[in-house]
């Protein structure tokens, strides 16, 4: 009876929405525990280990109850609204961030096509919404995330919040350009902006993911996503040593929690997006249940597990980087985007266009991979040479010698 009801795509999408939303919210909750455990591991500590589901029986289960305790703490904390804030915008800002971050999962292909009755007549997509412009939909939502940061900083009537909002605006707008260029590489190679077709294009090309063909574009997109999610070493909008907590300074209770949840939700959806574009989405080579022709319910569950596994792996990398690398200065952050990542992204998009043009003559897979790698290496070499020449020119102009400070001009009184 339930299978008959699910045979309609609309009904299946409604159930999938509830399931995926529950999984994402669960991952958001336990991502905080995961991050604190990783921080403890990096600092040779134990991390949270006192709160568990079976504390009455002496079983603490590695602190698995800590996210529940944290959630209750946010609920019961006093909600302080400072005087002279712009209250409508102050309240709307965290809601905008959370809503925009959560809407992105709707177009992610979580498990390919599933045949519910086993005879191929009732195929539905394991995807909430299959849009012709699914990739553009995600890019539009990502661009809207800056509104929550700007409104939260401006409406708080606090100089540190305003500085954090200004930093966040400049950072998010700057790093959207290298993100768009890296995404353009995958779009050119696949010839489509439908996310499910981008996955099938990678599977259909000899099980060769775009991360193998264009590793520099993959790393470019991954690095830029650190800036888009305000994660270390790109967390300048929240730099505690400089701005208290940036645009979050005047928030408390559930409003602060909504910003917190939005950050982790953005990370989850962003890593799923990265997996779809460059890591084959739900696909793994040489495993029968993870191929497009496998459409059973068991195959769908395996594909969803693979997607969640890739998301968890990249969440781990996000957190490991946070507790490993120091924070950039803001001028270094902007210079990295405009002088390094944007020119490299333009070069990589040009390489992808050339490869697509040449491979029309039935090029073999290995020749295509070799051509892509040659183009990627050429882009890196040119970027390094241009960077070194620009640095030498800057040193001549400012009078610097290596890492020594600039020599003051004669008569400057310095």
What would you note in describing this structure?
The chain has helices at residues 2-6, 9-42, 66-76, 87-103, 134-155, 159-190, 195-204, 210-213, 215-228, 240-243, 253-278, 297-322, 330-358, 365-398; strands spanning 113-115, 123-125. With 414 residues, it is an all-alpha fold. It has one domain (2-393). A two-stranded antiparallel sheet has the order 1-2. A hairpin with a 7-residue loop joins strand 1 (113-115) and strand 2 (123-125). Helix 4 packs parallel to helix 11. The longest helix is centred in the first third of the chain and has 34 residues, at 9-42. The radius of gyration is 24 Å and the shape is globular. The chain starts with a helix and ends in a 16-residue tail after the last helix. The model has no long low-confidence stretch (mean pLDDT 81).
Name the descriptors.
two-stranded antiparallel ribbon; 65% helix; 414 residues
Short description:
With 414 residues, the protein is an all-alpha fold.
Estimate the mean pLDDT confidence: 81
Domains counted in the coordinates: how many? 1
Q: List the secondary-structure elements in sequence, H or E.
A: HHHHEEHHHHHHHHHH
The N- and C-terminal alpha carbons lie at a distance of 84 Å
Low-confidence stretches are none
Helical segment tally?
Answer: 14
The gyration radius over C-alpha positions equals 24 Å
| Alpha-beta classification | mainly alpha
Helical content band: 55-70%
Main beta sheet strand tally, sense and closure: 2 strands, antiparallel
* Spatial ordering of strands, largest sheet: 1-2
Instruction: Please provide the count of β strands.
Output: 2
Identify the overall geometry: globular
Beta-strand content bin: under 5%
């Amino acid at each position: 009876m339930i299978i008959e009801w699910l045979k309609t795509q609309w009904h299946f999408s409604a159930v999938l929405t509830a399931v995926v939303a529950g999984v994402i919210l669960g991952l958001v909750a336990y991502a905080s525990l995961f991050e604190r455990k990783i921080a403890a591991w990096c600092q040779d500590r134990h991390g949270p280990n006192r709160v568990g589901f079976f504390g009455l029986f002496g079983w603490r289960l590695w602190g698995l109850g800590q996210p529940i305790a944290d959630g209750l703490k946010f609920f019961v904390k006093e909600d302080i609204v400072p005087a002279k804030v712009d209250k409508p915008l102050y309240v709307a800002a965290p809601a905008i961030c959370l809503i925009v971050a959560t809407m992105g999962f709707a177009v992610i292909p979580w498990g390919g096509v599933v045949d519910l009755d086993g005879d191929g007549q009732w195929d539905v997509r394991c995807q909430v919404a299959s849009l012709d412009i699914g990739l553009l939909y995600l890019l539009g939502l990502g661009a809207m995330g800056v509104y929550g940061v700007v409104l939260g900083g401006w409406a708080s009537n606090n100089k540190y919040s305003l500085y954090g909002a200004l930093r966040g605006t400049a950072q998010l707008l700057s790093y959207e350009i290298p993100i768009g260029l890296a995404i353009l590489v995958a779009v050119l190679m696949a010839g489509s902006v439908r996310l499910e077709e981008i996955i099938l294009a990678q599977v259909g090309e000899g099980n060769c993911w775009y991360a193998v063909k264009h590793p520099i574009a993959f790393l470019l997109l991954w690095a830029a996503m650190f800036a888009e999610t305000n994660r270390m070493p790109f967390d300048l909008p929240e730099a505690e040593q400089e701005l208290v907590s940036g645009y979050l300074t005047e928030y408390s209770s559930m409003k602060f929690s909504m910003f917190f949840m939005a950050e982790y939700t953005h990370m989850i959806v962003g890593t799923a997006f990265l997996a779809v574009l460059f890591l084959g989405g739900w696909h793994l080579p040489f495993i029968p249940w993870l191929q497009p022709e496998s459409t059973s319910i068991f195959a769908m569950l395996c594909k969803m597990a693979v997607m969640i596994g890739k998301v968890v792996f990249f969440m781990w990398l996000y957190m490991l980087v946070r507790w490993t690398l120091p924070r950039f200065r803001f001028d270094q952050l902007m210079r990295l985007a405009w002088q390094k990542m944007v020119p490299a992204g333009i070069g990589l998009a040009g390489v992808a266009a050339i490869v697509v043009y040449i491979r029309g003559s039935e090029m073999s897979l290995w020749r295509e991979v070799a051509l892509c790698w040659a183009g990627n290496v050429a882009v890196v070499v040119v970027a390094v040479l241009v960077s070194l020449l620009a640095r030498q020119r800057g040193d001549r102009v400012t009078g610097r010698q290596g890492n020594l400070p600039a020599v003051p001009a004669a008569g400057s009184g310095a």
